[in-house]
């Protein structure tokens, strides 16, 4: 009875001490918040920089492509007599300079310029979608690392309790008045070993997620990678992400309304601009049925005749053009190709919208089920488990319960806390996925508000 009373006192003291130790440890850490990680990742993303260069290149090309082809100049001596190469011998002999200029086919230059401008207009939407996707990806990695970190913290808090259980059980077993059995000690030691192994696995998971995060925290200087954050640590507080269009979570919204909303998403806007650009290709193909015109002019200088009389110089002016007659295997096929490309891009938009709708439905179901689980754990399961822990400890203290029940209840309590943590983290992860679908810019995806769980 004495040892069992001592067990209760030891567990209470150990639990209080472990919590204070954990708080002290966390406050002294160098913390890298979710917002900091995301911002650094966006700053250091070389894809975004390359995308800007690609846009500038196409914008520059859209200016140059609207210019006419350079005129061609020809200079030559015509009809020189081969018997003496005397410039004045024959009347047909002349020095000739000519200029020719080809004009674009129909409105092809204007259409090409508009097509490139539309293509360049895709890039800002591509960058915004890239930022949104990268924000979601880095946030998922950060939350996974956070989950591992806090699970380790919860287990470490309970290590003190199990160590005290072993100490008290061993003391009770070594005395004649104690009722602890050897199997009680072995059971407690086994659970302690399992917890140590679980900590090792969680540390491995945390390191894996942090290493994936660190990939995006490289900075580029003179072509070399300079890594600034070699030892990442995360804050103890779980971010509470604000949900965009929260009203859609608890309402029956139809697919057409969703498509209208998702049509403003950067990824869909990018495809819209792509459709406009490809549609210009159809117009460009139709222009190839029109003739292409060119003009040419030349001036021929003739020398004096053998009697010293001057000869008239010669001026030539002409127009050239082609006639697209054999169109079956050329222009017709080019137009058909352009039309099929346009249909393909329109199908791409439909496919992307369908993915958004499916992702919305899946994420919505996940959030509703997680909301239910959160409520069950918070209002029922956790309080019931805490009562069970108190009851088993009281029963054991009064010689009415087994030591194994005390250990089992503590393990159940620890697992419930870890499960509760997992639920909270999964809620935030799904809210991020939800926000990605509705966000028109990356900043909206991880805005934080209120207390934990209040956004559902």
Notable traits:
single chain; 456 residues; alpha+beta; Outer membrane efflux proteins (OEP); four-stranded antiparallel sheet; two-stranded antiparallel ribbon; 10 helices; 6 strands; elongated
Explain this structure.
InterPro entries: MdtP/NodT-like. This is Transporter. GO terms for molecular function: efflux transmembrane transporter activity. With 456 residues, the protein is of the alpha+beta class. It has one domain: Outer membrane efflux proteins (OEP) (Up-down Bundle), CATH 1.20.1600. Helices cover 63% and strands 9% of the residues. The chain contains ten helices and six strands. It has helices spanning 2-27, 34-43, 46-64, 108-120, 122-173, 182-214, 255-262, 266-287, 331-397, 403-438, and strands at 72-78, 94-102, 218-221, 224-227, 293-301, 314-321. The strands form two sheets. Strands 1-2-5-6 form a four-stranded antiparallel sheet, with no helix packed on it. It has a two-stranded antiparallel sheet with strand order 3-4. A hairpin with a 2-residue loop joins strand 3 (218-221) and strand 4 (224-227). The model is unreliable at 12-29 and 222-227 (pLDDT under 50).
């Amino acid at each position: 009875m004495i040892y069992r009373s001592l067990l209760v006192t030891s567990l209470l003291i150990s639990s209080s001490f472990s919590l204070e130790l954990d708080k002290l440890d966390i406050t002294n850490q160098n913390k890298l918040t979710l917002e900091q990680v995301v911002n650094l990742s966006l700053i250091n993303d070389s894809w975004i920089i390359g995308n800007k260069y690609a846009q500038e290149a196409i914008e520059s090309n859209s200016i140059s492509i609207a210019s006419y082809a350079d005129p061609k100049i020809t200079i030559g001596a015509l009809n020189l007599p081969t018997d003496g190469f005397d410039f004045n011998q024959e009347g047909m002999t002349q020095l000739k300079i000519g200029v020719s200029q080809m004009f674009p086919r129909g409105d092809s230059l204007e259409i090409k310029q508009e097509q490139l401008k539309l293509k360049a207009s895709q890039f800002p939407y591509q960058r915004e979608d890239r930022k949104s996707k990268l924000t979601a990806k880095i946030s998922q990695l950060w939350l996974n690392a956070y989950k591992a970190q806090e699970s380790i913290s919860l287990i470490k808090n309970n290590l003190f309790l199990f160590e005290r259980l072993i100490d008290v059980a061993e003391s009770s077993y070594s005395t004649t008045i104690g009722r602890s059995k050897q199997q009680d000690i072995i059971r407690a030691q086994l659970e302690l070993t399992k917890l140590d192994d679980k900590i090792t696995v969680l540390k491995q998971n945390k390191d894996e997620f942090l290493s994936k995060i660190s990939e995006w925290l490289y900075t580029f200087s003179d072509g070399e990678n300079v890594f600034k954050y070699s030892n990442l640590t995360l804050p103890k507080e779980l971010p509470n992400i604000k949900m965009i269009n929260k009203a859609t979570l608890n309402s029956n919204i139809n697919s057409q309304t969703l498509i209208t909303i998702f049509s403003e998403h950067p990824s869909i806007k990018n495809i819209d601009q792509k459709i406009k650009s490809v549609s210009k290709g159809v117009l460009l193909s139709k222009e190839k049925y029109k003739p292409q015109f060119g003009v040419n002019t030349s001036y021929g200088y003739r020398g004096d005749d053998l009697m010293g009389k001057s000869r008239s110089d010669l001026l030539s002016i002409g127009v050239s053009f082609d006639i697209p007659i054999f169109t079956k295997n050329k222009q017709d096929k080019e137009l058909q190709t352009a039309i099929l490309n346009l249909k393909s891009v329109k199908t791409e938009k439909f496919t992307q919208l369908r993915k958004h709708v499916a992702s919305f439905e899946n994420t919505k179901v996940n959030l509703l089920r997680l909301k239910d689980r959160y409520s069950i754990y918070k209002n029922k399961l956790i309080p019931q488990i805490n009562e069970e822990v108190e009851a088993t400890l009281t029963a054991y203290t009064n010689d009415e319960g087994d030591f194994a029940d005390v250990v089992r209840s503590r393990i159940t309590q620890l697992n419930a806390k870890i499960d509760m943590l997992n639920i909270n983290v999964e809620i935030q992860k799904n809210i991020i996925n939800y926000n990605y679908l509705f966000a028109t810019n990356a900043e909206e995806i991880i805005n934080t508000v209120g207390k934990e769980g209040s956004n559902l």
